[in-house]
Amino acid sequence: MVHPDPGPSVAGPPPPPCRLVRAPIDGASLLAAVSSGDAGGNVLFLGTTRGVTDGVVTRGLEYEAHEPLALRMLDDLRAEAIARFNLSGCAVAHRLGAVPVGAASIAIAAAAPHRREAFAAAEWLLGRIKEVVPIWKCDEGADGTRTWIHPGDMRSAVGVER
Asked: What's the whole-model pTM score?
């Protein structure tokens, strides 16, 4: 159920507002899809792979998901964010597969009449996605050690090596 992120140069119907992609995320097109003349605040958050976390070098990340459930949960969280923060538009793209250092793993675009709601919605969505959506992250260290981290445990070093 991975939806390709066609980017701005491909004509056709707009991509779904929540999607899982295996190619680089086009944040500009995600933001353009939610922006409107009614929005005074248009926010784009890009979560990128860090090269060093807490002094530990990271080669890259890899993401896997229970795709049908993850998409349904992303859609539900998006709908909740729209209602909770009075958004005029919202979209989420999460990358699956290998994500190199410096590349975006997730993009959240939120548009609202005022900036405060747009920023709050993006932050709330990121937190909820990390807590509950079945997307798993594998951190590959410089020594080749791979540590899988499950939703709800994204801020700890607990994982299963393989």
From this structure: 0.84
